[in-house]
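Entry: AGAP010685-PA
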Amino acid sequence: MSRALNLSNFPPSAEVIGFSARDHYPDIVFTREMLHPPGHSRRSESTRDVMVPVTESLPKRILAIFMELGLLEALGEATQSESRFVARAATYLQMIGRRFKQYWQSYPCELSMDLVAKHSQTRNWQKSTIRCLSWHPLCFKLAVATIDDTVRIFTRNPGVTPILRSSLQKAVTCLAWRPYTGGELAIGCQSGVLIWSVDPTSQITRPLSQ
């Protein structure tokens, strides 16, 4: 069990209150059952747990992998084709795609994650249970991003904890509340920036845009 209680980054309005009032701030506890390793939400793992196994045709598998993981991974699946022509063509195109990617991509994905871990304010970012957190500047809300790329919103009501989760939300690096609004949160991650509109009465919320 990992236990984290952060009282160092309060909203500005919290500085004028006494220390006894800080006892009402949330005591955050994460258990192993609440967290999942990175990549748990991918199709290859999640669908095995919730879907009945079926035999899909190669074109369907290629299309599904292309939509979720990208072109190179889809070409990798195409190399498993029984047709020699299709397998050879996919292997050749995959080789060209990898060389093109290495030429145009300044920082490979692995190096990018290493750079994030190096410059992150969170110590041992890659293995830390809590990746980052952010207090709302005007009201009592605390957003906490965990290692499973899930963001939870803690408020004065312990019975409702909205959970922000998306397939695009991978490698969360930073959080920021929109000023002068009660429920809009920006989440910086590997895919870009996701803008969430947080419903305080709902457990699961969907992103507003990205």
